[in-house]
């Protein structure tokens, strides 16, 4: 055992872990973020039933809506999500997943299935994995609910960052389809994504599931202010 500890110490010295936020070398007891960055994470609320969540549940016409953090371009949350998205850092997903699952567990929800917003196969090939998928699986295990892929992307939509709200809505219209018809009819499905901006993509997913007889709730890591 001692030898193993020695080995890990050696690894730490050779490849010290750095803070995802400020890139400073982390202390032994710190994980992902240094204490300073950790204290600066812009969490939305400790409770799941805040005004913002209720407003978005109305907007998307879903049963429940939960978001964990505020997203600012170039900010700490973007760095966290980037670490998950492009470096596949699982610890980041676990860190956010724990927090988000607490918000959801605070309320009675009776969710049957967790699923994610899929990437188009071409983009998936390019990136190698879908971060929303990974995160949804982490969240599902935190909630003790099973994860099932339900949706597939049938239209390779353009990147939406430069689009207006209306353009985004048109861009994602009919972009999704069910993987297998009506397998989950009557179930309460929690759809998970990383960042919510205008909500156009999510709305497109919600409408499809709703049309196919599913009860829908939504959870995202972060949302634009
Ligand atoms: Zn830091």
UniProtKB/TrEMBL annotation:
<protein>
    <submittedName>
        <fullName>ComF family protein</fullName>
    </submittedName>
</protein>
<feature type="domain" description="Phosphoribosyltransferase">
    <location>
        <begin position="134"/>
        <end position="221"/>
    </location>
</feature>
<dbReference type="InterPro" id="IPR051910">
    <property type="entry name" value="ComF/GntX_DNA_util-trans"/>
</dbReference>
<dbReference type="InterPro" id="IPR000836">
    <property type="entry name" value="PRTase_dom"/>
</dbReference>
<dbReference type="InterPro" id="IPR029057">
    <property type="entry name" value="PRTase-like"/>
</dbReference>
<dbReference type="Pfam" id="PF00156">
    <property type="entry name" value="Pribosyltran"/>
</dbReference>
<comment type="similarity">
    <text>Belongs to the ComF/GntX family.</text>
</comment>
């Amino acid at each position: 055992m001692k030898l193993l500890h020695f080995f890990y110490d050696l690894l730490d010295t050779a490849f010290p872990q750095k803070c995802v936020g400020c890139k400073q070398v982390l202390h032994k007891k710190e994980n992902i973020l240094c204490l300073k960055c950790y204290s600066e994470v812009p969490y939305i609320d400790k409770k799941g039933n805040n005004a913002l969540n209720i407003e978005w549940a109305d907007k998307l016409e879903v049963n429940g809506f939960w978001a964990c953090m505020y997203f600012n371009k170039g900010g700490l949350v973007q760095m966290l999500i980037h670490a998950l998205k492009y470096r596949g850092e699982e610890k980041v997903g676990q860190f956010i997943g724990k927090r988000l699952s607490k918000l959801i567990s605070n309320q009675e929800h009776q969710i049957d299935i967790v699923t994610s917003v899929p990437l188009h196969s071409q983009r998936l090939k390019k990136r190698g994995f879908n971060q929303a998928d990974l995160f949804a699986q982490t969240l599902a295990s935190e909630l003790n609910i099973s994860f099932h892929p339900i949706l597939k992307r049938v239209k390779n939509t353009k990147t939406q960052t430069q689009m207006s709200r209306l353009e985004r809505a048109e861009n994602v219209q009919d972009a999704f389809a069910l993987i297998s018809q009506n397998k989950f009819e009557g179930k309460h499905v929690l759809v998970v994504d990383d960042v919510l901006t205008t909500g156009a993509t999510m709305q497109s997913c919600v409408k499809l599931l709703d049309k196919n007889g599913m009860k829908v709730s939504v959870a995202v890591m972060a949302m634009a202010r």
